[in-house]
Amino acid sequence: xxxxxxxVKTKPVSILGNSYIFFCTxxxxxxxxxxxxxxxxxxxxTRLGIEHDAHKVPVGGIAEWFxxxxxxxxxxxxxxxxxxxxxxxxxxxxxxxxxxxxxGRSALAYHSELPNSTxxxxxxxxxWGTRGRFxxxxxxxxxxxxxxxxxxxxxxxxxxxxxxxxxxYGKKEHAGLSSxxxxxxxxxxxxxxxxxxxxxxxxxxxxxxxKERLDILLEIQRLGVDALxxxxxxxxxxxxxxDSLVIxxxxxxxxxxxxxVSHKPDFYPDYPIGFDWHTNLPEFRHxxxxxxxxxxxx
Length: 298
Hints:
Blueprint: E1 3-4, H1 20-29, E2 32-35, H2 38-47, E3 60-63, H3 67-72, H4 80-93, E4 98-104, H5 133-141, H6 144-155, E5 158-164, H7 180-183, E6 189-191, E7 197-202, H8 207-222, E8 227-231, H9 243-253, E9 260-261, H10 276-279, H11 282-287
Parallel strand pairs: 1-9, 3-4, 4-5, 5-8
Antiparallel strand pairs: 2-8, 6-7
Helix pairs in contact: 4-6
């Protein structure tokens, strides 16, 4: 039996409600959370020997080192290391003061030492055809992230490590972009209101899901980036109807959230579970070595 929303105690769900203001804010920020305020930006430049101009607005570029070639089917003319350097040089020539480097989405675009990590396998992405094969060649030859960090710091350019937080694909044509963690744990997939698997998203109410991304972020930090970018582009971190959310909700309220009917576009069940991992990220802050970010990157 459906429950009318007027009979249910509700309250705003932190910043995660699908409100007009939140949506506009996400558009302005590009759906990205930057863990590097102005103070940290200044400090990273000081460490790199760059004179900071208080009147100059920082300009950052989001780098996809294989994006141009992949989009247009153009084979790179340079070796792997030169390809990475060329990407960085072009951003410097364009006046960028920092660069946001792609570290991966579900599968990773750098060489990870984590036991459960998965490297991108472009040849398994049938949607790309043969256009992406050079990506595998580069990843076999070098670690793009380590190469970029070293070269950026040589050139005096701050580099921010960017990780997609919930972009797991799930379709066969994108198999090479999905991590083994996401593929082998269907029980972690988010669930729709009709109890269908949402294959491209994992549920952040599950501790193992949080830990998988946290471990990657901590490793990226250890490699020497100047800041982290938590990327939620197109995957807003709204919790859906996984059992780890539905069961506690039913226990506390006596109602099944999947049966709640609402005509309010900003309504979501008031789950009795904290959303802090997305808003305040206490576990992330606790695990992160803030000193590595000059005591100001969070």
